[in-house]
Design goal:
50% strand, mainly beta, 0% helix, single chain, seven-stranded mixed beta sheet, 123 residues
Amino acid sequence: VQLQASGGGLVRPGGSLRLSCAASGRISSMYTMGWFRQAPGKEREFVAAIEWSGRSTIYGDSVQGRFTISRDNAKITVYLQMNSLKPEDTAVYYCAGKTSTVLSRSTTWYRDWGQGTQVTVSS
């Protein structure tokens, strides 16, 4: 499985960005996908995850209410809509996936990882 993240960039505080992560390869129809982020000098942090049907989602405390995860199974793509961005959201954002019917916040649980896309929030 290959995961390709895109959509990062430079945005002003209060602005919005939408990240995309396209999956390819031999993927089960039951494939949980998630987003993590890592700022310089910090550990990788859970952002959001969505189960295969799209009906269940979970979020990290720091993004709850500002970020929305969604997926398009026809395109095997997951999205992260990020609103009300803050400077502390600056990080490299990674998408991850695993064949499963459950959700997880753990970095060690996910099997597949994308290459990351940089998000910088600055005035």
